[in-house]
Amino acid sequence: MTALTAFPEEHAKVQSCRDVITEHDHPPVATTFSWYDEPAEEGHGYLVIDVEPLLRAPKAHEGGLLLSDSRRAIWVRPDASVIAAAVATDSMLCHAMSQRAESARLNVITLSEMNLEYFRWVDRFLLPSAEGRWEHRVTADRFAGKELCLLGPGHNPQFPMIGLQNQASAGLWDRAWPATGSPETDAFKSPSRIYGLFGLAASQNPYTTDARADTEKVRAAVQG
User: Taking the CB of residue 81, how many other CB atoms lie within 10 A of it?
Assistant: First the structure.
């Protein structure tokens, strides 16, 4: 077993590591970067890189298809309805560095990208093949209580996470709207329901333009 040596946080070149993994790992993987302090040496710690395959074969589940892991799931049911879920933890919807705090702050880039990609798939490929009127629904569970969930207006803050941040106003939040068939429109309406849980307007999400999700802004944020 190799002994680990703590090093200063400013030497943790996260973006360089991400670039190397993105370029050379095929099939593609998801990476989560977490920093853990060294108790015996202030300002030093360990960078932990969690690597997880993105491509997995879906499996049959109650007559439909289910693709899932410990952090997220998407289930296409026999009636063509779709349920997608993700955990609001450091490894998925929240900042990977937030284990230093007593609460979890939602990552605006992750939230915006997941919404847009979901509706680009569902609105473009599933809704046209399914008859009848359809609606989309957002449900947030256990966002308030013993462990607080936070969201702030604008872009993600730099660490340490200072600045305005609102607490979720309810532990359970369920909101629906008629499906528009436009991925960019629905990908704006979805965060507008989520932002409302925190007393914020969807226009305070920086990856929107004219009440629509802005694909170019999201792409630039993810690639940057």
Answer: 15
Nearby residues of 103 by Cβ (< 8 Å), 6 or more positions away: 147, 148, 149, 150, 167
Quickly tell me which residue has 């609606």 as its tokens.
135
Burial of 143 (0-12, 13-18, 19+ CB in 10 A): buried
Return the residue matching tokens 């790992």: 25
CB 197 within 8 A of CB 138: no
* Partners of 8 in the β-ladder: 44
118: tokens are 């979901």
- What sign has the CA pseudo-torsion 99, 102, 108, 114? positive
Looking up tokens 């977490």, which residue turns up? 34
Q: What does the pLDDT read at residue 98? A: 47
The C-alpha atoms of residue 149 and residue 103 are separated, in whole angstroms, by 6
pLDDT in tens, 54-88: 556 778 888 888 988 777 888 988 888 899 998 88
Tell me the pTM.
0.70
| Spatial separation of the C-alpha atoms in residues 108 and 163, rounded to whole Å | 14
Q: In the structure encoding, which two tokens stand for residue 210, read together?
A: 């004219």
Number of Cβ atoms within 10 Å of the Cβ of 106: 25
Tokens 């993987």 correspond to 29
CB 52 within 8 A of CB 29: yes
pLDDT band at 15 (very low <50, low <70, confident <90, very high): confident
- Rounded to the nearest 10°, the torsion over CA 111, 115, 117, 121 is 160
3-state helix, strand, coil in the chain (%, to 5): 30, 30, 40
